[in-house]
User: Fold these one by one.
Assistant:
Number 1:
Amino acid sequence: MAEGDTAEQDAENVIRIMVATDNHLGYAEKDAVRGEDSFTAFEEILEMAVAEDVDMILLGGDLFHDAQPSQNSMHKCIELLRRYTFGDKPVSLEILSDQAASFHNAVNQSVNYEDPNLNIAIPVFSIHGNHDDPSGFGRLSCLDLLSATGLVNYFGRWTDLTKVEISPILIRKGESKLGLYGLSHIHDARLARLFKEYQVMINAPNESDEEWFHLMVVHQNRAENRGPKNFIPEEALPSFMHLIIWGHEHDCRIDPELNVLRDFYVSQPGSSVATSLSEGEAKKKHVGLLEIYKTKFHLKPLPLQTVRPFVFDSINLEECVDKLNLGEGDASTKVYNFALERVEAMIKQAKTMLTGHPKQPTLPLIRLRLLFSEESHMFNTVRFGQMFLTRVANPADMVKFDKLKKFRGKSEKTSVDKEAMQRAMQVDNTTRVEQLVNSYFEQANNPLKLMHSKALAQITYRMVEHGDNDAAQDIYGFYSKKAIEHLMEALPDDDNIDEELGKFRISHRVDDLLKEMDSSGFKEKASADENGTSLNIEPKSSMSSGEETTSRGAGETTVARGRGRGRGRGRAAANSATTRSTTSRSTSSPDRQQTLLSAVKSGRKTNPKTYVISDDDSD
């Protein structure tokens, strides 16, 4: 890592910064046991800043847990900031950039330590996070209040969300020059779109002949498992950065990690208080002491001593069936006794995490997550927790049962037989897309279970040649209707459904099915057939909010239920919903169009039995 031996450098040329993120002041403040945890940890951070004689404190968002903090939370925050950041010590940082453009809601449009009415010893710089972002009338953040009172230098705030232009706060101390960039929280999907559309501009200092250290603080999702549009990849940030301070993610990864593609480092300090009983929150909490000399830096992790001990464990009961002999006798009692022993061991482990600090809470947080697939393994967790009322801080939710979920992996959903596709492309006279579709599915290793390949080719033909955007929906709907009728007559066992669907495909010719559908004028959105079987896969967007239609048997009325509506108004709502649906179907709106692939996927009912669990409880 690019580190300077800062101990040998003149103190007048080294910028010392205390770095922390996600303090969540006011979290669980009404809890008699945990109410002071966030304030205790924040006070320790300020005490460390004073002890380390830092030049400034840098906060990475979510100073408060709520966008509109309680009077209690605001009062304690103001009290702590005045106690530890005010004083007679001179501030040796010089701001070179336009301060009016950098600090939002500052009374004098300048950094707080240049205000002649304030006596600031350690300036605090902060962006906002998703918990304390601007909201309500006037679109003000609680950080705007702290900025107006001169307690915090609030920067990186954006009001125009159609484009973002970030200019640095230019800071100088002796020979070291720092460009501080702030990106307060913007909804991840929106920010990802702005990056994709090149609407995010990050400016660098104009002085190309001078050496600047570029430091950026952001508050966004970093984990890729939140979806392709719900996180910001590190590679989206410019390569001229030296170090990124990443807020929002609560698990502590404070040691700088090199991004080899961009050649900068990323540090994720994590939260100073546990706001969820997840595995990431159970990691040791730290803040960082960042020392910068010209373009070199050193980040020293400082462990927090006042954080409440937290022990997390996850047990898959499926792996303990033989060990606990859950196949015989009372499985619930056996799991209960096993959990009792495990919790006792976790409480013992928590005692080893006590630091001896006089302000550290001694009652630990315990979370035992039990993954199960059989409900017979469960027991009453609330009653279980009553035995530990005086021994843990969270007896009510100490044990949590999570059911193992079945899902079809993404790779299986989108798997393509590449060899079959290659052969289909090489077939002579394959000049039309419907011929390509038919050829592919006839040669693919994963044949269709319900529809014929020619039916998919017909869907493609009608959509491309005739502009029938409902072709996929109608043909698939008719196939589903006929398949349901076939299954209702055969009544196969669950294990034989695939086999019976194969018989359906053999006994029904695709030409006959399509001819029958066209002659009957079938439309997928028909409410009910003559046998009372309802088939409706209309998108939710075609129905107004709060309305729900329920199809009845022959001779019964379709009723729309909504909040505060009677039967007469419900029928009117149902009719209006149908009208809107019809109007939508007759247009060419891109939101209404359904692709061939999505139409086929939506009807698959048989999934391989794969189990998955989530590492997070709740955020």
Number 2:
Amino acid sequence: MTSVPPAPEEDTANFDYLEIANMELRRAIISEWQQTMSTAALTTVVCAVCARDTNISSIVFVKPRKVDFALLCNPLLPDNLQPSSYNRVAYGGAILHPKGLTNIDGLGDLRICKECRSDLARPRMPRFALANWLYYGLEKLPNSVSDAFRRATPVERILVSRARASKISYKFSELPGHVMYKKPAVTSQRCVKGNIAIHPQDTTSFNEVLPPSAESIRDTVCAVFVGQTKPDLQTIRQLTPILVRKSRVRIMIEFLVAHNPHYRVGETFKGFSKSNLDNLFGPGTQGVDEDVLCSMEIGHIGRSDGVEGATSSYIPGQEDGPAKDEEGVLMENVGYTDNDDTPVNYRRMTMVALAHCLADGRFLKVQAGSKLIPDFRNPNLLSWLFPHLDPWGIGGFHKHERFTPLTMAQQLKYLLSVHDSPFRKDPDFAFVYYNILQKKAVYDSVTFRVSGHERESVVQQLLKVDVVVLNRLIAAFKENPHYKCKNAEESSILKLLLKVNAVSHDLPGSNGYKIALRNQIRGLINDEGTPTLFITLNPSDRDHPLVRLYAGDEIVLEDAMQGEELSRWKRTIYAAENPAACAKFFDTMMTNFISTVLRYGRSGRGLFG
């Protein structure tokens, strides 16, 4: 009788991660999470030098005698723009943020972040100091102008901007569950919510006069209504986000022309156009101050199961409206990026990159007069695109007078970190400049490769390419990827491009970058095995009080967790008005989950192994 050998013992080492965390580990994770997410750990303080909201652990109190205030002065800033919200003379003329001072009436201790403190000790001006042309003088605006910029609707801001880099679409929807649903339009405006979709443009468009012409406005903004019935003019006139007030537009334009050097009348800019202002609402409306633009396209989509399925959400209370005593139309912002570098568009991408090089690194917008408008290193562009954020024209990107140079990425990150900064609340500033950064990254990372024996010949031919014809080809291939050349000049350019390979390095956000990450995931699965547990996190910026803390409210997280005093509608409006605080909240939640709950990169196991 043959004996059967015993089965080998199963190697359980590979299954250690399936072991359920014991109570001691769970309690340790909960305790650490509570400490990490506490008010004491997350409270921010304003740095007097750079005005950034800084974690309290990175703030030091500095005696004034230890600060060289000469390093924090900007003698080039006009006297009428120097800050007056504190005793500037007591602080040696330094440009500081009053919330970083312990005494605004006289000399006192300063709260300074460790980064700025390190630079001052060297000694040198901190690169993010307000004195480094990062002070925008908003407090020095006349009251009427400040009020106009603050109250301006998104459409009014379009009318006072010299340049535009995006197109905006509005969608207004009825809220079916609301108490005022299907009531007369005059009395049911509280049951309307809206979305703003911000679409990038390939090039920056330039306005020769302000307000711009009707044709320019028609290409920039539109509105769509979703509901049971088609809205009438009376209904449309009650939706404040798309209304325009001529008197407010005129105040802003006249101020910019008189005080902003980037809006100075000259060969390329003719200034204020009274005729365009008078005709904003159509012929014969010169005496009407507030209405809807006659040139704005307005459409209607009937409510149906298909529309509901395409626009529905699983978030609880997403369709809630305001209570009877609450006002406001909720406008949620959605931004789109423009980096579709799929193989279908490879030929167009190559042509765009070549056109960029031949145009000396600029974006070409062919209009009347064929103006060149540089996107990347243009100190005027910020004020051209967002005059309400830089009304005096003193804080643009790549400003030549800046004492310590900053890259666009550095300044953009800084502006979104400044305490109570209007840049943090603007609905399309971050979207527009993210797209500009992405375009810059594309052109910085693209290189051309050709066969060695053809190099000299190809280079000479590339330098002779007609940029006008090349840009015409780019537009044609964008409209029709299967475009056929119409003349010998176009055919010769395409034949030349067949000899050139465009090679791009890793570009975050591009399709190639996403494919590379997916390949990494596939490699991990092949090496480590398929995932055993999938986790989905949905941090709710609307419901978590941390958003209010990051937006500047003085609250105690531990108390607020017990129950919000704000209604769900007010919390929704608050989150929509503070996009930067919501983004910071999401990053905090995800980072702490990975570090505290998963304990990734730390010794010992986390909750899931």
Number 3:
Amino acid sequence: MRSSIACVRCRRSKVKCVNSGPNTTCRACEASNRECTYPQPVLSGAPRTASAGMTINSVTGPSTGALGGGTVERTEAPKKAKQKKPGTNLSATATAASMNTPLYWMECLGQPVLTQGVWQLIFDAFQLHHSPTLPFLHPPTFLNRLRASTANPGSSSGNSPPPEKPHSPLLLLGMLTLTARHVSPLVSHHAAALSTPTAVSEFYASALKYRLKNDKEGSLLTPALDKVQALLMLTVHEWGQMRKNDAYMWLGLAIRMSGALGLSWVDADDAPTSAPYSPEPEPEEPLSYKRRKLDNGTSAKAATAYTVEKEVRRRTFWAVFILDRALSSGRYFPSMVSSIDADRVQLPSDERGFMFGADIKTGFLNSASLLHPERNCDQQQAGGGERILAHVVKAMELWGQIQFWIETMDNAHPMSPNSTYYKLSTALEAFVDSLPHQLEFSSNTLQVHFSTRSSSSYAVLHVTLFLARITLERKCLPDLPFLSPRALGPIDPPGQQPSPDEERFYSESAERFMSSSRDLITLVSSLEEWNCKIESPFIISAIERAARSGLYAYSFPWMDARGYMTGSSRTPEAEPMGTGEETRKAIEFITNLKPRWTCAKK
């Protein structure tokens, strides 16, 4: 018969134990002429104190082994208490000092507050405030990875696509660094220890810096695409915190890393060929998920993924380029991305093509033709898929050239065709005139972009152009025009009577200066009215310059003869071109940003 209790040897070997009951020799031990022992029964609730039981004599006689005398007691070592992992929930008792430690930095991505709904808010804030200058996030891929990371394992059906790989912690911390200040659930969650939205973003910035320096997958200097993107986000944050030196250093590391990854060669002739498939719009009634095959056997899904990955690398390079042009200025912060490298990379495609993974051919920057439009206008023709972001890149190239010119000595008269001012002004005017109708600056066009959710890129484009014009014309105007009731240039000798052409030139320069300041503030005010206000260090610096233009106009009203900023026209029988509220709106806008951005306080 088979007993309900197996002997030690059968139990260890996991075989059937055939015996006549407890403490009898089983058939297996009898056949092998071995000792047959049974585990000692354990009383309910009492710990077992012996590992061996009674010895049953074999058919050959008494055993002389160590176990032959009965049981051998062995006291089990007490189990060690399992150490609890420190909780990831930042409780109300936490302080700013206790949170700024490696323990919190490493565990901050596991906070319960970071639900899928909160991550959606984080993504929306990033798209609103930073996608025009950091356009490398592919929305379907990003959101699919978020859903995959929060879904229960085994919950996907057989017809669903395979799950995406998880997001890089560096990328997620970079997004939190930029957007935590805008997400109310995060600000409320940390309110006990971090009193301001800026402090919340600073906490995640510290976590990102710690992760960068203690990366498990490589050192800080190991090139990786997600690391470049995280460094760019950290650059924007440091810039907004008035740490421009730190921002410039992080940006320099991102530039060198992008060079090591070959991002400027993504469209070179010796690069891999383009994807052989460009997806068409899906049918109205999509079929169940199947892996489609092309005629040449290439997977359509793989081809689309390749196209998206290539565009992400391309857009990462342009994000490096945009920040280089926006942050660099003259002597102490020189530009580090050459126009030769930028001319090799295809301009970003339109958002729809990027979303669907379409292989769209756009044009190239061609900075020489951009700065010298009179040489060859044909080289500036846009490609088929060139949209707002491509024009943002071109506007940033012009802005970078103007920033470099500000700190140089140009003794030529601005009216002279040989002067740098004249060349830059002509290039800027030609670029504005070449904008397609749907990108021209007007209230109707702005409303269209509000409805199509492209207002952020449209706003950054025109803010850049207005800022370039303000900066360009400001150098042609005197700092303190006390001596004359009309606009004069800063290089005119004192007491010299300007010619009629010079007087007309300076008057027109002052008018361009004031009108650009008014238009910039009008654009930002419209964004705020439509609840699409953009907050970034670049936008804040542009509004600050426009506000200074208004203070300049109120201090020296003859410099604003048409009343663009003062709301009072000094030209007989001419209506003022502004309301006079522009300066106040600009100052209020900056004041409202103080809790979220340190640069607004300074």
